[in-house]
Amino acid sequence: FGKAKPAKLCLTGFSLWFYGYFNPSYLLIMLFSILFNYCIFRLIISARKKNRMSGIAGSRFWMTIGVLSNLGILFYFKYYDFFIENVNAVFDTSFMLKGILLPLGISFFTFQQIGFVVDSYRGEIESCSFLDYSLFVSFFPQLIAGPIVNHNEMMPQFEQIGHRQMDWSQFTSGVYLFTLGMVKKVLVADTFGKAVNWGYSNVSGLTGVDSALLILFYVLQLYFDFSGYSDMAIGIGKMFRITIPENFRSPYKAESVKDFWKRWHITLSSFLQTYVYFPLGGSRKGKARTIVNTLITFLVSGLWHGANWTFVFWGLLHGIGVAFNSLELVKVRKKWLARAFTFAYICMAFVFFRADSLGDGFRIMGRIFSFQYNGSITAPVSYTHLRAHE
């Protein structure tokens, strides 16, 4: 009916219902996060309207409060137990773990709001209604598993909500993409996932061939899982005539680790580059500082993915790979060879991404180079045994 506000209210309301359906307590966390960050945004805008020096200082103060508060909330829910475990291990203490249940999508909507707060401080956002901001944070297609969207990608599109006519071509295209993504996730990724879960729960019994197949299966599972979620998000967005940014672009065709991160989880790469790498100095302060900044950025990426030293090590491996590419010490002229080397390196790094511990990761890598094989792949399969691990 050409009414923007009711359309936005409807979409925001159902997005919040979608988020709270699994666990209503999660919804309270999200609502608090939305309200808090919007207040920070208003305080930053208010401070910027004052005279130059006090306005800059005030807006910087509120931006710092906003970023640190968001990181503090993320730390509590995602990293508190990890931190306490390491304190107990290093100092031989016995602090109790809280066993905190991680709210769905908190890493995504926290980073998204950090970006909004920082951009407000930089003067890139002049105004935003509370309704538009709530929709920006809670928009359900990309709420749980990304992609991480930027205000300048979504706000202009939200302005058109309620003013556009139904586009059946866009809608059917969206249905196709959503279906494709669901097939990737449910039929392909989850099928590989059963074998992967069994393999990683039986690391001690793996041979070299088993380990090689396990690594390949996990690399395929991971791609079809993340790519599937991304396709579903883009597909639902198309149904509403809203364009959600691409998050994957044939990442396993990458010719270097640096190229890989231009194709894999593109929106996370963009966020880390904009809000971590560039503020650290980027590549403007010499090669040594560039390498340090790259390693720090990828360590942050590793920690963002999960609270375990395996994720930190995975981030370090990718940081080393990107830094090595930046130095341009070796140039592989054959495209297929560059892709093969890159794919092998990425596969090796993903071993630690999935492993329960660094020890398990190194054991799997050791099995590959031991060249052991006991014929287990061609041995009769016990389906009862497999079902027990599902």
Structure write-up:
With 390 residues, the protein is mostly helical. It has helices at 4-20, 24-48, 52-91, 106-121, 130-138, 151-158, 168-200, 208-239, 257-260, 266-280, 287-305, 309-327, 335-354, 358-370, 383-388. Helix 2 runs antiparallel to helix 3 (52-91), helix 8 crosses helix 13 (335-354) and helix 13 (335-354) packs across helix 14 (358-370). The longest helix is centred in the N-terminal third of the chain and has 40 residues, at 52-91. The model is unreliable at 377-386 (pLDDT under 50).
What are the salient characteristics of this protein?
single chain, 390 residues, mainly alpha, 15 helices, 71% helix, globular
Give a brief outline of the structure.
With 390 residues, the protein is mainly α.
SSE sequence, one letter per element: HHHHHHHHHHHHHHH
Integer average pLDDT: 90
- From the spread of the alpha carbons, the general shape counts as globular
Radius of gyration, in angstroms, nearest whole number: 23 Å
End-to-end C-alpha gap: 49 Å
Could you outline the blueprint of secondary structure elements for this entry?
Elements: H1 4-20, H2 24-48, H3 52-91, H4 106-121, H5 130-138, H6 151-158, H7 168-200, H8 208-239, H9 257-260, H10 266-280, H11 287-305, H12 309-327, H13 335-354, H14 358-370, H15 383-388
